[in-house]
Amino acid sequence: MSLSVMIQQIGTGFIQTVLIFALTLVFSLPLGLVVYFGRACRFKPLSVFVKVFISIMRGTPLMLQLLFWYFGPYYLWRANIGGYKFTAIILGCALNYAAYFAEIYRSGIEAVPAGQYEAAQILGYSKSQTFMRIIFPQMVKNVLPAVTNEVITLVKDTSLVYSVSYIEMFAIAKQIAAAQTTIMPFIAAGVFYYVFNYAVAFVMEAIEKKVNYLK
Questions:
Q1: What is the pLDDT of residues 85-128, one digit of tens each?
Q2: Most buried residue, 41, 97, 150, 161, by most Cβ within 10 Å?
Q3: What domains are defined for the chain?
């Protein structure tokens, strides 16, 4: 197999990698905020449930979670999972990262001085207005470096979907390497991952500079 053909095939898998990455972020970033609110809720049963959820998501490997979400419906209810693979991947990745983002959001919100809440109350802001207009913008600034690290980790974690036999960039590189008995596909995939991560880091750094007006 020529180098150009190999890169073309890996590039096809790269599209699937980007799709998994993008959809995971689209769902996990807002879901993480919902999880945080559940954790901070004064209704104790809900708060405890969310804390246990976060503990499980952070305390078990993502690969194991992907296997659970994919094979779980079959073993539990004998459901047909033939066309369920991509859904299971996005579900598993989004829930896992939502748990991490929830804890990152919590640290960012708790870093906002208590005086901000008191000042908002004096100005007559409601709780929702206080959060959206005062707390949320400061939280975003506080958590961006940590969120950037998680986003970069997500780029690499997309390779774990091979555990449910989904064909993306890493799976294609592995197949070519096994068939051709060469390490070149892994090197090519590594270059793709590095360039993708570099682009993500560049975008996130630009976003951090944009929010520096809060200093």
A1: 899 999 999 999 999 999 999 999 988 888 888 888 888 888 88
A2: 161
A3: 3-214 (1.10.3720.10)
